[in-house]
Task: inverse folding
């Protein structure tokens, strides 16, 4: 029996987590499928465990995935950040392209990281066509897990996705209908949101005597540098009205925690955490959060939030011309209304953050309404079991493409 090879390409800390969760379920699913489909009946027969390799981070490495490139240490957003790291990304791209042709995976799973992954899939497909000959049979299934936000900007990329991917796994309910309208030939499956499995959802209780505010500056170095100084000043303004307020900041890794400590420049009233997001949000009164994935985690725990973002002037100017949606925070996009106030770029100032935060903190009725609207958003995310469903769909597709000779 041939050993199945799966290549993974995941960028950033969030992709490292998503890929790890899916890999755990996919390994089990492939082993079960290969056992059931094996022609061998001897009791000593054991199916070969699939070989996982590619790009990711420490979580993937610790789950027996051979990491050739670590993107989590060089995360970038927008053209400015990408240009600063262009040599790294070019080297990584070529390294992964070479690895694909050397190891000829049966399956390539691209996790989020859409700019890199879409180009990689396109270049790989074209290179395979140029090398196609009788003895060169490399033709992997390519899956995109987590849809690029083409519905928010550059919708024409949907055609390129349809051309280069065999399957797109979506975690937001409206995306399947959007793709059906633009590229009906692309197979899109809504699998539900990973948050529903990642955390235990506890009631977020208001406390009369304590105000607990969680700061969530992001998962990229550039985000921390842009966000933390403003957040720090905003906490001082909030304390003037709530002198007993407790502030904590959650970072996704120890390395980013150390950077946050440097950026806080001696501020000791903000408690730093590497991880532990569930406990912090479970007891939070309010969050001040970057408009990334973490706003969905705030919504999951029913935490009112002020959504913020600042990037380089060049990235912002380009993004402003391309983005077609009204909001940037995903709970607002799903609800199609502003549940979380958004302070973007020049509007992201200590004074504006404090003003928005105090408006929420001083209005119990507003807090209750926000929590109720967040409950409706979470109900739209489907049922738990996202990674399991994704693994089942991928395995069925993989088995359907395997030649009969694979089993012999």
Result:
């Amino acid at each position: 029996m041939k050993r199945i090879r799966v290549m993974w390409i995941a960028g950033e800390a969030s992709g490292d987590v998503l890929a790890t969760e899916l890999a755990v379920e996919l390994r089990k699913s492939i082993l079960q499928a290969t056992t059931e489909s094996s022609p061998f009946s001897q009791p000593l027969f054991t199916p070969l465990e699939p070989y996982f390799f590619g790009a990711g981070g420490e979580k993937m490495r610790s789950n027996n995935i051979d990491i050739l490139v670590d993107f989590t240490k060089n995360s970038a957003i927008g053209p400015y950040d990408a240009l600063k790291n262009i040599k790294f990304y070019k080297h990584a791209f070529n390294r992964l392209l070479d690895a694909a042709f050397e190891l000829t995976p049966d399956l390539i799973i691209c996790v989020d990281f859409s700019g890199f992954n879409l180009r990689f899939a396109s270049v790989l497909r074209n290179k395979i066509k140029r090398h196609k000959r009788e003895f060169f049979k490399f033709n992997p299934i390519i899956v995109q897990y987590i849809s690029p936000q083409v519905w928010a900007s550059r919708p024409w990329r949907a055609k390129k996705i349809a051309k280069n991917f065999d399957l797109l796994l979506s975690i937001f309910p409206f995306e399947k209908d959007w793709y059906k309208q633009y590229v009906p030939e692309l197979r899109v499956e809504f699998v539900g949101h990973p948050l529903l499995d990642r955390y235990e959802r506890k009631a977020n209780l208001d406390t009369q005597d304590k105000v607990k505010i969680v700061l969530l500056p992001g998962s990229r170095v550039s985000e921390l540098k842009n966000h933390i100084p403003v957040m720090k000043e905003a906490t001082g303004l909030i304390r003037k009205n709530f002198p007993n307020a407790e502030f904590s900041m959650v970072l996704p890794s120890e390395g980013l925690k150390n950077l946050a400590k440097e950026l806080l420049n001696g501020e000791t009233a903000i408690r730093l955490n590497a991880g532990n997001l569930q406990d912090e949000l479970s007891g939070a009164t309010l969050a001040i959060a970057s408009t990334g994935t973490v706003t969905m985690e705030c919504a999951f725990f029913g935490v009112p939030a002020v959504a913020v973002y600042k990037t380089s002037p060049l990235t912002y100017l380009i993004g402003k011309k391309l983005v077609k949606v009204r909001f940037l925070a995903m709970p607002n996009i799903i609800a199609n209304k502003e549940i979380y106030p958004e302070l973007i770029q020049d509007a992201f100032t200590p004074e504006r953050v404090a003003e928005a935060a105090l408006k929420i903190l001083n209005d119990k009725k507003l807090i209750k309404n926000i929590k109720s609207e967040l409950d409706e958003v979470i109900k739209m995310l489907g049922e738990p079991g996202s990674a399991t469903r994704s693994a089942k769909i991928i395995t069925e597709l993989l088995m359907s493409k395997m030649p009969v000779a694979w089993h012999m």
